Amino acid sequence: MAKKGITTSTVAESSAAPAADCPLCPRLGAFRDTLRRQHPGWHNSPVPSFGDTGVRLLVVGLAPGKHGANRTGRPFTGDYAGDLLFETLIAGGFAEGAYDARPDDGLRLVDCRITNAVRCLPPGNKPGSEEIRACNPYLAAEFDAMPRLAAILALGRIAHDAVLMAHGLVRARHPFGHGATHRLASGRVLYDSYHCSRYNTNTRRLTPAMFQAVLARIGEDLKGLQAS
Asked: What local confidence, expressed as pLDDT, does residue 65 receive?
């Protein structure tokens, strides 16, 4: 792991992040406007990444959750997926402090940053393929903004495919599979995990132990890079 000095308690937004009223996806924009009328106190805008850019691990999720990041403005904050993600990051040494489902809870990421393949909340939590493509340049900008990036954790197949798209790679050569690893041409390593959603954990498709094992492997691999 990197030194504990690489931490943050704030949301750090890339200079290439989408604007609050991003017009690229009309369906997502219309949904955003509806929720702004219904819940004027919510974030209801593209959700910026969380964490510093000078770190070695980037966690890539699918999209903001309605009552999670779309409400709070911080990735995975306020819904069940965040409960499991941040608990596991803390256990693996990738976060410090107490997660309290609030952007001001003081949680600090350690050698880690979190983003989403799609920055805006999609209806039914299902972005369309054209919406994933429209947002992909922002994901590519994340990679460009992280000079020390060595490991990427994709939460689910859509995030996995979006990472490959941002690197210009063919999906058929890098099939998604929980626990799979893929060495990319950039030298970075892509790690796959089932998404830490309530559905996946309730159906036991993903258990906390399975998720912890993926983070533990990333931690060990990064320690090896640091020692070499």
From this structure: 97
Q: How far apart are CA 45 and CA 181, in angstroms?
A: 32
Q: Which CATH superfamily is domain 7-227 in?
A: Uracil-DNA glycosylase-like domain (3.40.470.10)
Short-list 116, 96, 3, 99, CA closest to 50: 116
Q: How far is CA 38 from the centre of its chain?
A: 26
**Residue 137 pLDDT class (50, 70, 90 cuts):** very high
Among 63, 82, 69, CA closest to 196: 82
Distance CA 174, CA 153 (A): 14
Judge residue 221's burial from the number of C-beta atoms within 10 Å of its C-beta, 0-12 exposed, 13-18 middle, 19 or more buried.
Answer: middle
Domain boundaries, the chain: 7-227
Residue tagged 């510093």 (tokens): 52
Tokens of 157: 């197949």
How does pLDDT run across 12-43, given as a tens digit for each residue? 444 468 999 999 999 999 999 999 999 999 99
> What's the pTM value of the predicted model, to 2 decimals?
0.92
Which region holds residue 97: left if phi is over 0, alpha if psi is between -120 and 50, else beta?
Answer: left
